[in-house]
Design a protein that fits this description.
Layout: H1 2-5, H2 14-23, H3 25-30, H4 33-38, H5 40-50, H6 52-58, H7 65-76, H8 95-107, H9 111-120, H10 126-135, H11 137-150, E1 151-154, E2 157-160
Antiparallel strand pairs: 1-2
Helix pairs in contact: 5-6, 8-11, 9-11, 10-11
């Protein structure tokens, strides 16, 4: 009965559709199947940011896009849009400018410490290390400092922290 009284919304732009999908259950029920299917591709791309496996499963040929949109709505409808829906190419509030010092500090670590980092990351190559420094400088620096704290590096030999290494006289 209620569905008959509500008008069917015909044309929405993508961002209006996302607002309805995540925050307005009453208006979502009024959307036509055509409108839900029309926004499926872009919505699924947004879902792939946080849920890549599930979004890829929804990409299979023959899947009903309207049913998938309904599942997304049932799972995520609430008071506000999830944070991962908002993606931006713009730099965030100056944080990236301060990352330069972390990047420089990461690149100044000794080769043996970096080798230990590579081994702890599934025998990654040096390019993976540089990518990690570029994309996650603070986290990588923290990991490098932890490795340095776990092992004291002296002249090409590692010794456990707490043990004194004797220097030749």
């Amino acid at each position: 009965m209620l569905e008959n009284k509500l008008e069917t919304i015909e044309r929405l732009d993508f961002f209006e559709f996302l607002d309805i999908l995540f925050t307005d259950a009453k208006r979502y029920k009024t959307l036509s199947k055509k409108e839900k299917a029309r926004h499926f591709f872009m919505t699924n791309r947004r879902f792939a940011i946080a849920y890549p496996i599930q979004a890829q499963a929804a990409n299979k040929i023959g899947m009903n896009p309207v049913a998938i949109m309904d599942k997304y709505h049932n799972a995520f409808c609430g008071d506000q849009k999830p944070r991962w829906v908002f993606t931006s190419a713009a730099k965030n509030n100056g944080d990236d400018r301060s990352d330069g010092k972390y990047i420089n500090e990461c690149m100044c670590f000794d080769r043996e410490i970096i080798k230990t980092w590579l081994l702890s990351h599934n025998n990654s190559d040096y390019k993976s290390f540089k990518d990690s420094v570029r994309m996650h400088p603070r986290h990588t620096l923290k990991e490098l400092k932890n490795i340095l704290a776990e092992t004291t590096y002296t002249g090409g030999k590692k010794s456990p922290v707490g043990q004194q290494t004797t220097k030749p006289h």
